[in-house]
Amino acid sequence: MSGVMAGKVALVTGAGGGIGRGVALELAKAGAKVVVNDIGVSLTGEGGDAGPAQRVVDEIVAAGGIAVANTDSVSSWQGANAIVQCAIDNFGRIDAVVNNAGNLRDRMFFKMNEEEWRSVIDVHLNGTFFVSRAAANHFKDQESGAYVHMTSTSGLIGNLGQANYSAAKLGIAALSKSIALDMARFNVRSNCIAPFAWSRMTSSIPSETPEEKARVAKLQKMEANKVAPMAAFLASDAAHEVNAQIFAVRANEIMLMSQPRPVRSVHMSEGWTPESIAEIAIPAMRNSFFKLERSPDVISWDPI
After folding, report:
1. Whole-number Å distance between alpha carbons of 234 and 193
2. What burial letters (b/e) apply to 26-59, b meaning 16+ CB within 10 Å?
3. Measuring CA to CA, which residue among 282, 278, 254 is closest to residue 266?
4. Fewest Cβ atoms nearer than 10 Å: which of 37, 79, 128, 303?
5. pLDDT tens-digit series, residues 237-265
6. Distance separating alpha carbons of residues 249 and 62, to the nearest angstrom
7. Which domains does the chain have, with CATH numbers?
8. From residue 210, how far is each of 201, 214, 215, 217, 221 by CA, in Å?
């Protein structure tokens, strides 16, 4: 198969369904040999089935592509290294990593327990680091490579009942920037996508009230495979000048997301006291404060 990923090898974690499946299929369509990773468990971690990954591999092969299934877990150092080694063993190299694996343990912060916190951090944040780190030396030695990480507006902006998920996803954005800084000298890029899509992850959103039902109806219009072209582009050499950026993909809409920068400053030549901060600094900056908003409050227009 020919395309922007011709001759490349890519691995996609959490690729047994939803966004990950779409990305794996798109990469194969673009010419890549693909490692389809999925441990085949539920959103809350139950079960374990090689079927989802293998079914995606079968789809790729049926369309004339090349792929192999992998069921190792991203949440351990050993598992992550085994995923990357699967690419090396089967295809001799690795050119792109798409960190997509995820889980959910939604709970209001004041009710969240240790297991709910750790399990989400382990898969999203630790998993992204472990898989990225496992590929790093291969990228460094060949002086090329691309990372694509899935972040979320839950972390970039905020959402209710997702302290664990939000913390992990904002952490991924910072991790991506650090990877980009550390690996740029080796011609390795690292970018993030915040996807809006109806998938197994979003299907857990409550839909009982009229407002919740309306929100879910909007989400259902945003097909998971709409995210795939952006992921394939960022993984390819066509994106050689794109590094350390955060994009959001929402149906047919692509957004470049802001990153934290100073928006206002105040200076006191003799130094500040708590009283002068209250009297002068805060009133001067208050008009630039960010509101206590959630992702749907900020990105509130209908999907394109």
Report:
1. 9
2. bbbbbbbbbbbbbbbbeeebeeeeeebbbbbbeb
3. 282
4. 303
5. 999 999 999 999 999 999 999 999 999 99
6. 28
7. 9-259 (3.40.50.720)
8. 21, 6, 9, 10, 17
**Euclidean distance between CA atoms 137 and 139, whole angstroms:** 5
Tens digits of per-residue pLDDT, 22-74?
A: 999 999 999 999 999 999 865 555 545 569 999 999 999 999 999 999 999 99
Alpha helices in 30-76 (DSSP H): 51-62
Residue 209 amino acid letter: T
Residue 244, Cβ density class (10 Å: 0-12 exposed, 13-18 middle, ≥19 buried):
middle
Q: What are phi and psi of 122, to 5 degrees?
A: -60, -45
**Would you state the torsion angle of the CA atoms of residues 47, 50, 53, 57, taken in this order, to the nearest 10 degrees?**
-160
Catalytic residue among 165, 196, 198, 233: 165
